[in-house]
Amino acid sequence: ALKSVPAAPAPVAEEARAILKRLGVPDSVFAPSGRPALSPISGETVAHVRETTPEEAKAAIARADAAFKVWRRIPAPKRGEFVRLIGEELRAAKDDLGRLVTLEAGKVTSEGLGEVQEMIDICDFAVGLSRQLYGLTIATERADHRMMETWHPLGVCGVISAFNFPVAVWSWNAALAFVCGDSVVWKPSEKTLLTALATKAIVERAAKRFGGVPEGLLEVLLGGREIGEILVDDHRVPVVSATGSTAMGRQVGPKLAARFARAILELGGNNAAIVAPSADLDLALRGIAFAAMGTAGQRCTTLRRLFVHESVYDRLVPRLKKVYSSVTIGDPRREGVLVGPLIDKAAFDGMERALDEARAAGGVVHGGGRYTDGECANGFYARPALVEMPEQKGPVLRETFAPILYVMRYTDFEDVIAQHNAVGAGLSSSIFTLDMREAETFISAVGSDCGIANVNIGPSGAEIGGAFGGEKETGGGREAGSDAWKAYMRRATNTINYGRTLPLAQGVKFDV
Ligand code: NAD
Prior knowledge:
The protein is of the alpha/beta class. It has helices at 12-22, 54-71, 76-105, 109-129, 168-179, 193-210, 225-233, 246-258, 281-293, 310-326, 345-360, 413-420, 436-442; strands at residues 30-38, 45-49, 137-138, 145-153, 156-160, 183-187, 218-220, 239-243, 262-266, 271-275, 303-309, 364-367, 370-371, 381-382, 385-388, 404-410, 425-426, 428-432, 452-455, 467-468, 471-472, 479-480, 489-497. The model has no long low-confidence stretch (mean pLDDT 96).
């Protein structure tokens, strides 16, 4: 029988332009003098996008402020109906938007689609939430009084997002902000302008169906850091959710603090896993390999440090090395590919630098280096690297946004917890163990110091139902599920006297 040879995927730029057209992105957003929107798959320029000028950014914030003043008066469940329609439009556009994520951010097909699914999921969550923005009734010490708390819309919510989750991070914030009665001004990564434009077109379709959405409820500012700074500095924006590197957070955080605005900071991670003596090694192997190599190591929750107990090291690490050497690297649109391209040359250079430093610190590097076979010649594809380190030092202590996994031996449980927590970031973490004492200790007050601590699954890939975010240099912000919505609203405590006297609190006497 003839073996069919898979056809080469369509040229990237052509495919992306066809999707933009289908999703209704107007031609007016493009201009020959604009910022080039590249695909990391082939390095091709898909389009030139007109950037937002500082004056336009300020006008957009003014429109969003005016929109907020209308939107806050619409009952929350009705606002939820708008978000329900966004979810419906996302369902209809899932294949196209997911593919565009693949083309622009380089994620493999299932992850591109998964990112859009996350957007749909948070919309569903927010619709339910729109009828559950509860406050409390609180016991008061004064007779014939009632005390309660109420939650009110806050204002314009600024959203700054990173390239690696180009649209899901926007939705975690925007879906909640909209039901909470806020308007949104979004500054997407300058590396992923096309998916932002497509998302805006999708929201506009939902707005048309809803009717009565005030102009300016969603504004998008296209450009680099300077345009993000305008958003951060504007006193009409009481809350800014900023996702990106810790370096970005160090610039943005103090500016927001100086004007007493709220900051939801979602910054870098340096996530670790521990493989204990009792671990199910087959399960651990799968969990580790996906968490470390998936998305070409470009997730904030990517596994970067692995501590393996000395008693299982020689059974696990050789198998892991085998998986590393056989992983499929290539065009992320092809079936069976796990590792697509890095976002750009700077990311690849950063990976090379970290590997050199690791070698200098006594590390033994397996894999690494540029992968240029066939259609990968024009993008920055890297072979994932597994680095056996004698100890945790040098580049192991920081995040390099690329597929590098540092592997270290340990002997003592308490000591490994200390090492686990001895880095700046505090986003995600895991332990692989069947020992109940170790598992419970790891997620207890004296265990992992991260915002996410898992047992017997890798650190990457969270669900929207939980609050997402991390501690320390990860910034402390929480997004998505649980009670993350509270950051997008202001709380008022109300006391009502329905009696005929005026008792004062704390027994204070005052006569007139
Ligand atoms: P980045 O920090 O380079 O850029 C992120 C965004 O911040 C971009 O939109 C950028 O234009 C903007 N920005 C940068 N400096 C700014 C400033 N001074 N003022 C205003 N805006 C500014 O990050 P990146 O390379 O796009 O993304 C990768 C990083 O993001 C990694 O460190 C990763 O761990 C992190 N990340 C964190 C999470 C999380 O939820 N914790 C999620 C995704 C990515």
